[in-house]
Amino acid sequence: MRRTARLLAGTALAVAAAAPAEAAVDAVHTAAHLRSAQTGRLDVYPSTVTPGSQVTVNTAACGDPGSATGDAGAVGAGTFTLAPSTHQGEAIGQFQVPPSAQPGTYEIVAKCAEGDRQVSGDLVVALNAVHEQVQPRGSVKTGVGGGLGPDPVQTAAGVTALAVAAAGGTWLLHRRARGDGI
Fold this sequence. Notes:
Layout: H1 2-39, E1 43-45, E2 48-49, E3 54-59, E4 68-71, E5 79-84, E6 91-96, E7 104-112, E8 118-125, H2 152-178
Parallel strand pairs: 2-8
Antiparallel strand pairs: 1-3, 3-6, 4-5, 4-7, 5-6, 7-8
Helix pairs in contact: 1-2
């Protein structure tokens, strides 16, 4: 009976420690999204292209409903529209790099429809497709969980959750060794 009570107490402590950790990971993810919106970054994908390629840009800097006017005139592509996307608070748009574009780095700019906020990102035009290689980012969307990836904030939240669980287990073992009745 005491053994079952100890196992149940240890399990309850581990679950109690994990629940706040999950909430902390969600809060950290939301804070990272807000920081991205505040820094005014325009994400350009792919960031390195060949002349004639299609480019997608998105930003969270414009908030909801998230629309903007883009300017790719530096590379010769003119203006384009960024419309609200399926990701809450993000605007997305596309343009095509002209086949006559010269190699180099070009600034792509987007001006939010509401307010006077302006964001920018860089586009690199290269002559060979070798420069188009894009490193995968994030985790595989399998629905069963996945790795946290290189995001240091999420990694720190995961390490914190494990530390809390380890401390709780150590505390239970210590009390058991002393004979405190758990």
